[in-house]
Amino acid sequence: MLGTTLSAHLPDSPTPPCGPGLTATVPRELVHRSAVAEVFLTGSAQPEEGGFTLTGQWPRAHAFFTDDTGPRHDPLIAAETIRQAGLYLAHTAFDVPLGHTFLLRRMDFATVQEQLAIGAQPTDITLDAVTGQVRRRRTSATVELRFTIHRDNRVVATGGGEFNCLAPEVYRRMRGPYAQADIHALTDSHAPLPPALVGRQAHKDVVLAATALPHQWVVCPDPRNAVLFDHAGDHIPGMVLLEAARQAAHTMFAPIDSRPLAVSIHFERYAELDTPCTVKARWMGAVDPSGTVEVTGRQADVTVFTSYLTGVGTPRPPEAKEEQPALAPRPSLTWRVPA
After folding, report:
1. Residue 26 has what DSSP assignment?
2. If we measure between CA atoms, which residue out of 82, 107, 157 comes closest to residue 265?
3. In the prediction, which pLDDT does 166 show?
4. Based on the domain organization, do 100 and 225 belong to the same domain?
């Protein structure tokens, strides 16, 4: 479970007032972002029965969500867009007040690689949302949503997730002394891995450091990274752990460069700031033409998250040839060697 909270004044209208043909982002407070530049949603249309339609835009260049291997969007931009859309609908459609904390329990997405290409203009997208279970209580709510993301009337991604919403007093009581922790005070003496080994170009984007064990690393993000740490928090954010899973799996294929085209991740508890969180990648065998990598995160001998990464056309790591456990029959994080 990973939480995010943002408290601020909101304009009376959830969608920015724009004239015909004009575009602006939705209020940053509704997607729990401090920087307007990190808001990918631009508005919402009149909901249809049983669903909602949102609009958004992906920039041609982004400090983090741009694929270093070619002119295409990083597939994880779909995960961030789904995260923002879930928060936006919780506030505007399900009346969750600002100041409530959102606990992400699970998320998955799948993208179409050909539709991630960056063109001559920013990528305008629409999101069709379908509501799953919505359970409300006086001081909390649970929301499940599924999304289909289109560009130029073609599907670019699908996915969704489930999260809990807690009133401030409930969250403070649940977190106890950890509620006073500050992510920006996070320090780590571990040296980060070389960027090329984890599929990154900038040292600030590396979130893993080496350990003495093979295929096992410690999570060591730089809290000065303005994208991963856009606002204050009392634990390691879920998107950082998702990036840690991606980077861990990437090391198993280096120097061949690969990118996730889909992800399934389940969070069981918070990743606290005062104890090392380790991630372990395990090759789970291959069924032509696919292979699967399991990435788990643990802290103090307790599981924090589990994700499954499946490859299409990826080589089998030589160091893993002796171990061939069965494939897990569940949604997975898909990898493909870019053309």
Report:
1. P
2. 107
3. 94
4. no
Q: Is 14 exposed, middle or buried (0-12, 13-18, 19+ CB in 10 A)?
A: middle
Question: Of 133, 195, 191, 168, whose CA–CA distance to 4 is shortest?
Answer: 168
**Domain termination site, one of 173, 196, 216:** 173
Residues of the chain with pLDDT under 50: 6-13, 17, 312-318, 320-339
Total domains present in the chain: 2
Helix H segments across 21-131? 76-92
One domain for residues 228 and 286: yes
Q: Alpha-carbon torsion 168, 171, 176, 181, what sign?
A: negative
Burial bucket for residue 242 (CB in 10 Å: 0-12, 13-18, 19+): buried
Beta bridge partners of 110: 158, 262
Output the pLDDT for position 106. Answer: 96
- The predicted pLDDT at position 312 comes to 46
Per the structure, the complete domain to which residue 250 belongs is given by 182-336
> What pairs with residue 117 in β-bridges?
72
Evaluate whether 317 touches 283 at the Cβ level (below 8 Å).
Answer: yes
Q: Pairing state of beta strands 216-219 and 208-210?
A: antiparallel
What is Dmax (Cα atoms) for the chain? 63
User: What tokens appear for 55 in the block?
Assistant: 């609009």
* Residue listed under structure tokens 């069981």: 268
Give me the pLDDT at residue 48, please: 67
Q: Which residue pairs from 22-29 have beta carbons closer than 8 angstroms and sit at least 24 positions apart in sequence? A: 23/57, 26/88, 29/98
Contacts of 252 (CB under 8 A, 6+ apart): 215, 281, 283, 293, 317, 320
Based on the fold, state whether residues 232 and 301 are members of the same structural domain: yes
